[in-house]
């Protein structure tokens, strides 16, 4: 195979049933960046139990009287779990720093987006994560080569949708794979 670099920026990674790391079991990861220097992504289907945006804002902004802050919080990955990232629709751009990834996907990791969401000035669609998934140079390619991940195009309705438990199956269906058939075949040689 040639030395052509695979670029999965803006794609979804779908954990295969035999994923060795339990933190990524049935994970759907939106890839925010991927290059020869490594890769970064956010799990979009692992809610943080009993944690809402209002809880995060109360902690960060010391209860600034915020009202409509019911957006759920997701565990984005095992790296820097105290750091927040907001994956959102591209109708919102922060003055401080928003990275546009694809037409329906941008990333902002500054406090102003949380304040804007709470005040009703935020993006049309958003998903808040704590932490991220990261891979060193060549690590993700090796995991894909060992059948740890499948890839597919990211669809905004799936990524931002409320059905976290159904995202993995829906993403597999989008590439013509029946999750039940895949699951039942897992672990057999």
Automatic annotation (TrEMBL):
SUPFAM superfamilies: VC0467-like (SSF143456)
Lineage: superkingdom: Bacteria
GO cellular component: cytosol
Record field: transmembrane: none
Record InterPro entries: AlgH-like
Family the entry assigns: Belongs to the UPF0301 (AlgH) family.
PANTHER family associated with the record: UNCHARACTERIZED PROTEIN YQGE (PTHR30327), UPF0301 PROTEIN YQGE (PTHR30327:SF1)
Protein name (database record): UPF0301 protein SAMN04488523_101345
Originating species: Sulfitobacter brevis
């Amino acid at each position: 195979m040639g030395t052509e670099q695979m670029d999965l920026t803006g794609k979804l990674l779908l954990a295969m049933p035999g994923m060795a790391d339990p933190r990524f079991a049935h994970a759907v990861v939106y890839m925010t960046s991927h290059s020869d220097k490594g890769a970064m992504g956010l799990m979009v289907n692992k809610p943080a139990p009993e944690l809402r945006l209002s809880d995060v804002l109360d902690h960060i902004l010391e209860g600034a009287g915020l009202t409509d802050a019911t957006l759920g919080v997701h565990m984005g990955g095992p790296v820097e779990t105290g750091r927040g990232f907001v994956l959102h629709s591209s109708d919102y751009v922060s003055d401080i720093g928003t990275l546009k990834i694809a037409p329906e996907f941008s990333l902002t990791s500054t406090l102003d987006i949380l304040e804007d969401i709470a005040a009703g000035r935020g993006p049309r669609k958003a998903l808040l994560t704590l932490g991220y998934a990261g891979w060193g140079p060549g690590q993700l390619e090796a995991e894909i080569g060992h059948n740890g991940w499948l890839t597919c195009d990211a669809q905004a309705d799936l990524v931002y949708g409320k059905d976290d438990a159904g995202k993995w199956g829906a993403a597999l269906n989008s590439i013509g794979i029946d999750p039940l058939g895949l699951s039942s075949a897992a672990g057999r040689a």
